[in-house]
């Protein structure tokens, strides 16, 4: 049989190439990584970049948390705060806010008025739980269950959303493991914070300004100085989880003391209708600024919503990248307010970014005891 030397040469060359490839693979695998600058540092850099890009900024945290902080109103007119704890619609607040009450009214940041029932309250720890059926299914705030804050940690103290500009105060954890007695409650191992607990903050959450997690419930303040006290999550978590699983059928009677060391619900600051209107307009544009069109649309009156569908409303702002409220002027007439706002909008069109200034005028009033933006008109200004 005559040998085909061309085939023999071809096969030999192929085997040689494969052999060289296999040798190169194992050589690179065994030797090259040792010569590279630490492989893990490259991966870590990518991870750090991802964390940095996705970490929420302070304004975003405030906006997200505010939507889950509520105003609690009792039949006698006294007021306080609370925040959503789970997807059952349960709201954590202070016991002194809802003491000796069963049914309460809860108002949300988007001006919804809902009914709540006290399903748990302690006569020792200043904590209570209110079930609000209208909030069931809403994603709650995240609690820092497995850690405690340390001295120097930056925090936010939030009160009722309709407490206007004074609902958010910033500060740090200025002390740990503080004990105090304000009849009838004993506060043990609580946070001391430099963010003051002003009237209307009682029952609101203490927020880690870096993560947005709830560190505690704001409960007490002092008459003088920027000092507040907040009960850590670990001090009341078992209580509220127990009430959520098995609501109390009989609530204990609580004899409230006369100590003025903290802001009681009845000491809630009173804000004018013009103050509330300014807050509403700011909140409307803040929602648009974060692309939260659902919340912004919910602040409009029923007639406006009837004439403008949500899809049309959203489409009108889809090219708006950012909104800054430069100034707001208000004038009240009875139960209605005329609010004139001057805004700067960053907008995109065909890939180009432009900055435009607008003058917008809103009529603001009440619908079913909820403040709404009833009508509005605007024009471009230079």
The helix-strand sequence is HHHEEEHEEEEEEEEEHHHHHEEEE
Radius of gyration, taken over Cα atoms and rounded to an integer in Å: 29 Å
| Chain-averaged pLDDT | 79
The assigned structural class equals alpha+beta
Give the termini distance in whole angstroms: 96 Å
What spatial order of strands do you see in the largest sheet?
Answer: 1-2-3-6-5-4
Number of strands: 16
Which band does the percent of strand residues land in? 35-45%
SSE layout:
Layout: H1 5-35, H2 39-54, H3 58-66, E1 69-73, E2 79-84, E3 90-93, H4 95-98, E4 103-107, E5 113-121, E6 128-131, E7 154-158, E8 168-182, E9 185-193, E10 205-208, E11 214-221, E12 228-232, H5 233-245, H6 273-289, H7 293-298, H8 302-307, H9 310-317, E13 320-333, E14 336-349, E15 352-367, E16 370-381
Care to describe what's here?
The protein has 382 residues and is α+β, with helices and mostly antiparallel strands. The chain is 29% helix and 35% strand. It has helices at residues 5-35, 39-54, 58-66, 95-98, 233-245, 273-289, 293-298, 302-307, 310-317; strands at residues 69-73, 79-84, 90-93, 103-107, 113-121, 128-131, 154-158, 168-182, 185-193, 205-208, 214-221, 228-232, 320-333, 336-349, 352-367, 370-381. The strands form three sheets. A six-stranded antiparallel beta barrel has the order 1-2-3-6-5-4. Strands 7-8-9-12-11-10 form a six-stranded antiparallel β-barrel. Strand 5 and strand 6 form a beta hairpin.
């Amino acid at each position: 049989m005559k040998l085909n030397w061309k085939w023999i040469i071809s096969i030999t060359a192929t085997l040689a190439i494969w052999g060289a490839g296999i040798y190169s693979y194992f050589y690179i695998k065994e030797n090259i990584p040792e010569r590279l600058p630490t492989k893990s540092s490259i991966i870590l850099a990518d991870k750090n970049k991802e964390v940095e890009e996705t970490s929420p900024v302070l304004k975003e945290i405030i906006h997200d948390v505010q939507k889950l902080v509520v105003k609690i109103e009792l039949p006698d007119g006294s007021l306080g705060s609370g925040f959503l704890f789970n997807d059952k619609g349960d709201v954590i607040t202070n016991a002194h806010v809802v003491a000796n009450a069963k049914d309460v009214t809860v108002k949300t940041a988007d001006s919804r008025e809902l009914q709540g029932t006290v399903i748990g309250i302690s006569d020792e720890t200043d904590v209570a739980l209110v079930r609000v059926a209208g909030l069931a299914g809403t994603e709650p705030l995240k609690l820092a269950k497995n850690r405690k804050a340390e001295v120097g940690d930056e925090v936010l103290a939030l009160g009722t959303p309709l407490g206007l500009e004074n609902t958010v105060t910033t500060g740090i954890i200025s002390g740990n493991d503080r004990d105090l007695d304000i009849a009838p409650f004993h506060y043990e191992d609580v946070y001391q914070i430099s963010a003051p607990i002003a009237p209307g903050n009682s029952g609101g959450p203490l927020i880690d300004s870096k993560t947005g997690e709830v560190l505690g419930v704001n409960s007490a303040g002092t008459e003088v100085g920027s000092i507040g006290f907040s009960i850590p999550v670990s001090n009341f978590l078992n209580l509220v989880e127990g009430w959520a699983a098995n609501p109390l059928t009989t609530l204990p009677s609580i004899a409230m003391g006369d100590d003025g060391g903290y802001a009681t619900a009845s000491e809630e600051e009173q804000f004018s209708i013009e103050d509330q209107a300014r807050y509403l307009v700011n909140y409307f544009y803040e929602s648009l600024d974060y692309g939260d069109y659902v919340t912004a649309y919910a602040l409009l009156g029923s007639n406006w919503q009837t004439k403008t569908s949500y899809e049309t409303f959203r489409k009108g702002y889809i090219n708006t990248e950012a909104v800054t409220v430069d100034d707001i002027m208000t004038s009240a007439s009875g139960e209605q307010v005329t609010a004139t706002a001057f805004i700067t909008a960053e907008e995109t069109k065909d890939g180009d970014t432009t900055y435009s200034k607008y003058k917008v005028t809103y009529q603001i009033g009440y619908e079913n005891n909820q403040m709404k933006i009833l009508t509005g008109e605007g024009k471009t200004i230079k």
